[in-house]
Design goal:
The structure holds 2 protein chains of 2 kinds.
Chain A (H helix, E strand, L loop, with lengths): L27 H5 L4 H29 L10 H37 L7 H20 L16 H4 L4 H28 L12 H33 L12 H34 L7 H14 L15 H29 L8 H24 L1 H7 L3 H31 L5 H27 L14 H31 L13 H4 L29
Helix pairs in contact in A: 2-3, 2-4, 2-15, 3-4, 3-6, 3-8, 3-13, 4-6, 6-7, 7-8, 7-9, 8-9, 8-10, 8-11, 8-13, 9-10, 10-11, 11-13, 11-14, 13-14, 14-15
Chain B lengths: L21 H36 L1 H8 L4 H26 L3 H32 L17 H34 L9 H27 L1
The chains are: A mainly alpha, B mainly alpha.
């Protein structure tokens, strides 16, 4: 009953479709009690997009405030709260759950040829925990804000009179949500592969989600205990982190970064997986170095556990420790480099189609490479002394987290949108939006590299007049980004109403979601249990 | 579509729709439990790490403070927990052999032993509260030479407190297991929840086996 192919960009009148996972049951209760991984993925998608809009709103406010020195639109205290919420919302409510929660939930069972994840009810619980955690985190907006930065460094976090408790408790709960998702994915990949789906026939996004899940399981509990200790410190003043009582604030930083550095791999690894799919499918080319990409994901996950100290070069840790952390930081660049080279090699000789997902993949290659290379500047001890806590760091992690993960997320969203919703969006508008995004991003953040090298400290409300032109330039870029996102919202929503019906395989992909599942898929994914006989990247390459 | 080819008795176990067979489903559940236990070890790992750091910093204070813990109560509790681990292991075995009544009895004994553990812990805690042997700012006990005994009690209360919460959760789960067992849901064909809980309970026991010597014996 696969849907008949329709032309890509034709905005023809929508035709009635058969039963699928979206219309199989009706009513809000059927959604809230569903155990279908696709519906849970869709609810995750809606939730993380709301969080992204909220975090983006704070970002625009921040940039507007920084348009000119001194007071522009908000007070210094409001500024502190705005950047804290921007960071906390973007990190914990958007990036971490974005790709695994939304796209991963939708894709993992389908790509494996399974009917669902291993623990469907646990999956729903993970979504509920996400909502509960989000409510606690966001409640701080109305209960006095939060001004610690998203890192909650003690001793300030144990003395400020803003609502540290509700946010840390919210993030504690969000951690459980993240662990459950990771646990579910690992077991699913081990136990629910379709007949013939060997490990080396798995699409690369599954390898990267597997690596992500390992990090989620091994790192998140440490954050949980750190936040529990922080809450106890704040409520009972137990003296573990508070130097006034004999505690050690640097221990807090070790604990925090033992989670939060691996967490940046929770954020970037799924994005790397998406890029592997996008580049292979939209260049119709067998992925170059399948095993190298697969194992570099695992390598990043493992080495990523050993580099947390590079956030603490100026915290007073020993010189020996700093030197070792610096060395290991360089090591972790190797598997990332392996991936980039393999993606570029895949493009070589491919029949590249500049579809919207491919445009985002190209953006990713540029932005992530810049983000990754500037990471090496910061990993170098002597250079870091100068650049630590400046806008250079801000620019670096935005190039990796936004230029990397968000770009990949957008690419993945455009790639699997037809599969998830059964509708095509306008390729022309998508190309315009991708261009706006790329230009807006570089205008916003490249100027911050320059600001940082000239000594502009991060998180400052006020600044010297000499920085004003670059700050204004950056703010202008943030508006371009905002317009780009609004445009995406417009044509994606429009596609739901009047987009052309998506064919089963609009991009010519070879993995199971394109070859064996309808757009959108039926409730248990496949009409017939798929049997896998070859890898996911066996494209017919006559001429190259 | 789904695997409902065998006629089902009342309360008979049925393979969930997305698994090929009961074996795969059991394996998946078992793997999930083991992964969950890994997260538990890392959770406690943070506390053990904090213990190691502060013990090396404030060695004399830790030694002095640990003399104020009640070794007899701690030792009795250790024996109680190890016994409860044994009865739980036997409960898993009897569930595997479809001996429903024996399973109920053994889970009941495990539950009773966990109550004993918490009762003893309650008396230990109330004694500490009474003496002012409390964390950080609330540390009011007198006659200490060092200034950092409060940190020892911070670590002590965090570690034993989080362990105690795990015992409490375990008790809730045992009541749930008992109810399901009495309804006849567990047999040699399906005992995964009993086994999974058994693994959890052994881990809770194991954590205590490390806590007891570290806190009570060597300080």
């Amino acid at each position: 009953m696969s849907v008949i192919a329709a032309d890509d960009d034709l905005e023809g009148a929508p035709r009635p479709r058969g039963t699928n996972y979206i219309n199989a049951e009706r009513g809000i209760v059927s959604w809230l009690t569903t155990v279908d991984h696709k519906r849970i993925g869709l609810m995750y998608l809606g939730s993380v997009l709301v969080a992204f809009a909220l975090g983006g709103f704070f970002a625009l406010l921040l940039r507007l405030e920084l348009l000119s020195p001194g007071h522009t639109i908000m007070s210094a205290n409001q500024y502190n709260q705005a950047f804290t919420l921007h960071g906390a919302v973007m990190t914990f409510l958007f990036i971490i759950p974005s790709i695994p929660g939304a796209l991963g939930n939708f894709l993992v069972p389908i790509l494996l040829g399974a009917k669902d994840v291993a623990f469907p009810r646990l999956n729903l619980l993970s979504l509920y925990l996400y909502w509960i955690g989000a409510i606690f985190t966001l409640s701080s907006i109305v209960t006095g804000g939060l001004d610690t930065g998203w890192t909650f460094y003690v001793p300030y976090a144990s003395t400020t009179n803003t609502s540290v408790l509700s946010v840390t408790f919210g993030i504690f709960v969000l951690g459980f949500s993240s662990v459950l998702t990771g646990l579910n994915f690992i077991v699913t990949m081990h136990k629910l592969r379709a007949p013939g789906m060997t490990w080396y026939r798995m699409p690369l996004i599954l390898w990267s989600l597997y690596a992500t899940s390992i990090v989620q399981i091994l790192a998140t509990p440490v954050l949980a205990i750190t936040l529990l200790l922080l809450m106890a410190e704040r409520v009972f003043h137990i003296g573990i982190f508070d130097p006034a009582l004999g505690g050690d604030p640097v221990l807090y930083q070790h604990f925090f970064w033992f989670y939060s550095h691996p967490a940046v791999y929770i954020m970037i690894l799924p994005g790397m997986g998406i890029i592997s799919e996008l580049i292979a499918v939209h260049a119709q080319r067998k992925i170059f170095g399948y095993k190298a990409i697969a194992f570099s994901s695992v390598a990043i996950a493992l080495v990523g556990f050993l580099v947390w100290g590079h956030h603490m070069f100026v915290s007073g840790q020993s010189e020996v420790a700093a030197t070792i952390f610096s060395f290991l930081t360089f090591i972790v660049a190797v598997p990332s480099g392996i991936k980039v080279f393999n993606w570029v090699s895949t493009l070589y000789g491919g029949s590249i189609k500049f579809t919207a997902p491919m445009l985002f993949a190209m953006c990713f290659l540029f932005l992530f490479t810049i983000g990754g290379l500037t990471g090496l500047f910061l990993g170098m001890l002597s250079v870091d002394m100068h650049l630590h806590d400046t806008y250079f760091v801000v620019a670096h992690f935005h190039y990796v987290m936004m230029g990397g993960t968000v770009t990949a997320f957008l690419g993945g969203l455009h790639h699997w949108w037809p599969k998830m919703t059964g509708r095509m969006y306008s390729q022309k508008l998508a190309a315009v939006a991708a261009a706006l995004y790329f230009i807006g991003f570089n205008v916003t953040f490249f100027s911050q590299f320059i600001l940082g090298t000239r000594g502009m400290p991060r998180r400052y409300y006020n600044y010297l007049d000499q920085f004003q032109p670059l700050h204004a330039f950056s703010t202008f870029g943030s508006w371009l980004l905002g317009v780009g996102f609004l445009l995406m919202l417009y044509y994606l929503l429009k596609s739901l109403k009047s987009g052309a019906i998506a064919p089963q395989n609009p991009w010519g992909g070879k993995s199971l979601e394109w070859t064996d599942a309808a757009s959108p898929p039926v409730t248990e994914n496949f009409e017939h249990r798929p049997v896998v006989t070859e890898g996911p990247y066996e494209f017919n390459e006559g001429k190259s | 579509m789904s695997a409902t080819d065998k006629p089902a008795r009342e309360n008979e176990f049925q393979v969930a729709h997305h698994f090929d067979s009961a074996d795969v489903q059991f394996d998946a559940g078992r793997m999930g439990i083991w992964l969950f236990l890994v997260t538990e070890i890392l959770l406690f790992g943070g506390l053990f790490c904090a213990f190691a750091v502060f013990r090396s910093w404030y060695y004399a204070d830790f030694v002095e403070a640990h003399h104020h813990l009640n070794r007899v109560m701690g030792a009795v509790n250790t024996v109680v927990l190890i016994c409860s681990s044994l009865t739980m292991a036997l409960a898993v075995r009897s569930a595997q052999m479809s001996k429903t009544k024996l399973t109920s009895l053994l889970i009941g004994v495990t539950l009773a032993l966990s109550c004993v553990f918490l009762t003893i812990k309650f008396f230990e805690y109330s004694h500490k509260f009474h003496e002012g042997l409390l964390p950080g700012r609330y540390f009011t006990a007198e006659g200490f030479h060092g200034h950092h005994a409060g940190i020892f009690f911070a670590v002590y209360f965090m570690m034993t407190g989080i362990h105690g919460i795990h015992i409490l959760i375990g008790m809730g789960l045992m009541i749930w297991l008992l109810r399901r067992n009495m309804r006849g849901e567990f047999s040699s064909r399906y005992y995964a929840p009993v086994e999974g809980f058994g693994l959890y309970w052994h881990l809770v026991d194991l954590v205590w086996i490390y806590l007891f010597p570290l806190l009570y014996l060597i300080g």
